[in-house]
Amino acid sequence: MLLWLADLPSLYFTSEFATTSPSCKADFQRTASRLDSVLKRDTDGADVRALVVTAHPDDECMFFAPTIVRLVELNASVHLLCLSEGNYYNQGAQRREELLSSCATLGIPASRVTIIDHKKLPDDPNAEWSISLVSSAVLKHITAHSINMVLTFDGRGVSGHANHVAIYKAVRHLASTGELPKECVVLSLETVGLLRKYISFLDLPFSWLLPSHLRCVVGSKGYKQAKAAMLCHRTQLLWFRYLYITFSRYMFINTFQTIPQGPKNLKIY
After folding, report:
1. Which of 64, 108, 181, 235 could make a disulfide contact with 103, Cβ separation 3.0–4.6 Å?
2. How far is residue 54 CA from its own chain's centroid?
3. Rounded CA gap, 129 and 34, in Å?
4. Strand 253-258, strand 185-189: pairing
5. Which of 32, 93, 87 has the alpha carbon at shortest distance from 56?
6. Can you name the residues that pair with 215 across neighbouring β-strands?
7. CA angle 218-250-209, nearest 5°?
8. What torsion, rounded to 10 degrees, do the Cα atoms 254, 219, 97, 142 define?
9. Lowest-confidence range among 23-32, 105-114, 220-229?
10. Whole-angstrom Cα distance, residue 244 to residue 63?
């Protein structure tokens, strides 16, 4: 079954857009036409400068590994911005090193990994992160590296973690206020229900048939790479993490929706 998965189109950017807003649809279609040619298996993706924005060390492999693996295979320039050291249990220094090892395993060099350690951005599910502070950090990174693709969590944060959701709100704020470069496409990782989340690669038919704007799938080789990255996070390897590695669809499949840029259209009746 894994070999069969490896033969499927592995990274697919669709031109579907479920909105009634003509301006948002036009903006997305312009972005799609620019990036569609480089987001295909048989095409070089050197023009793609992608930024994955995460909250904690291990988010990159727990949730985004299929996307990172595929983008790296396409020769895209992949950057990671992690907004905390993961210091909830006072293990920040060790988790920083684990993150760098994980990124190296996924194909992201240390020179493209940025880890923020800010007292107002603690690794804490009960902490309310400043949207303006997160927005500022993300925008600074986008500008410094001429990023044209941002990938992060959606409004449910995959696991529901408040820090994940805060990043989505910050990126959505940047998109809605028009502060991002017009050529930058912004994508949020789709949160799926509990059943779909833990049926591993058996979720593929659902992910393939249900509407999304970017789908990334890995086969056995990509899964082994994602697993090796997870195993770099030794401080996090409790028994349930091994179950996650075995059963989570996020080890095999990522689906994304776009976050439209520009202010929302107001309708007056």
Report:
1. 108
2. 7
3. 34
4. antiparallel
5. 87
6. 12, 255
7. 75
8. -40
9. 23-32
10. 11
Cα(41)–Cα(155) distance, integer angstroms: 29
| Structure token digits, residue 30 | 């312009």
Question: 153: part of which helix (H) or strand (E)?
Answer: strand 149-153
What is the helix (H) or strand (E) element at residue 136, kind and residue range? helix 131-144
Neighbour-count burial of 160, counting CB atoms closer than 10 A to its CB (0-12 exposed, 13-18 middle, 19+ buried): exposed
Buried-state track 106-139, b at ≥16 Cβ within 10 A, e below 16:
bbbeeebbbbebeeebbbeeeeebebebbbebbb
List C-alpha distances in Å: 40 to 46, 68, 114, 136, 210.
Answer: 12, 14, 27, 32, 19
| Token code pair at residue 49 | 């400068």
pTM (2 decimals)?
Answer: 0.87
H/E stretch holding 197 reads: helix 194-197
What does the pLDDT average to over 173-192? 95
Share of the chain above pLDDT 70, in %: 81
d(CA 263, CA 30) in angstroms, rounded, equals 17
